[in-house]
Amino acid sequence: MPENPSRNIALTGFMAVGKSAVGRTLAKTLKRRFVDLDRTIEKKEGKKIRDIFTERGEAYFRQLERQALSEVLEQKNQVIATGGGVVMDAENLRLLKDKTFLVCLTASVDVLLNRVGNAAKRPLLRVPNRQQRIEELLAQRAKNYAQAHAQVDTSERTIDQVVDKIIEHLNAAGC
Ligand code: S3P
Predict the structure, then answer these.
(1) If 17 and its partner were Cys, which of 9, 13, 97, 133 is the partner (CB 3.0–4.6 Å)?
(2) How far, in Å, from the CA of 32 to the mean position of ligand 1?
(3) Would you say 89 and 67 are in contact if contact means Cβ atoms under 8 Å apart?
(4) Is ligand 1 within 6 A of the CB of residue 124?
(5) Which helix (DSSP H) or strand (DSSP E) does residue 11 occupy?
(6) What is the pLDDT of residues 42-93, one digit of tens each?
(7) CA of 167 to the centre of ligand 1 (A)
(8) Which ligand 1 atom is at minimum distance from the Cα of 17?
(9) What whole-number distance in Å separates Cα of residue 60 and Cα of residue 56?
C-alpha cells in the first residue's frame, strides 16, 4: 500500500510508558514534526501540568487538553505524544481514531512503576500506594487504550526497537 505521509501519528498509553521519548525518536526517523500535547498545554498556560492540577483541578486540565488536542489535529504530518488520560474522553478518542494512526504503547505494571519513579511530575500518581493506583487506572482505561489501531509492548524493548515496531505497523496499515 502507498505511504500516506500526511496522516498524523499519535501515541497513547499509560503515564511513563515512554510516549514522549518514543515520539521524539519516531518523528526524527520519519522527518515529521513532533508535538507533545502536555508541553503544548504547559506553554499555553504558562504553568506546569502539576500546578494546573493543584491550582485549577483535573476537570479544568481536561478542558485544556480537549482544546489543545483539537487544535493540534488541525495540522498534519506530525507525531503527537498525548497525555495518558486523553483517550478517556469519547470525543478525543473519536478524533484520534479518525484523524491519526493511533498507537498504544503498553508495559507491565512493574515496568510502569519503575519508570514512574517518585511521580513528582504526575499528580494522579502522587498517592501512598502507586502500584494499586496504576492497576486501578489501567483497569478503568483498558477498553479505551484497546481501541488504538496498533499496540506495542515496550516492557522489554529499547526506544529504537519500539520505533521499529511502530514503523512495521505503519507500513502494514499503509500509513
Ligand atoms: C495523565 C497523564 C499525564 C498528564 C496528566 C494526566 C493521565 O501525561 O497528561 O498528568 O491522566 O494519565 P503522561 O501520560 O505523559 O504522564
Answers:
(1) 13
(2) 23
(3) no
(4) yes
(5) strand 8-13
(6) 999 999 999 999 999 999 999 999 999 999 999 999 999 999 999 999 999 9
(7) 24
(8) 14
(9) 6
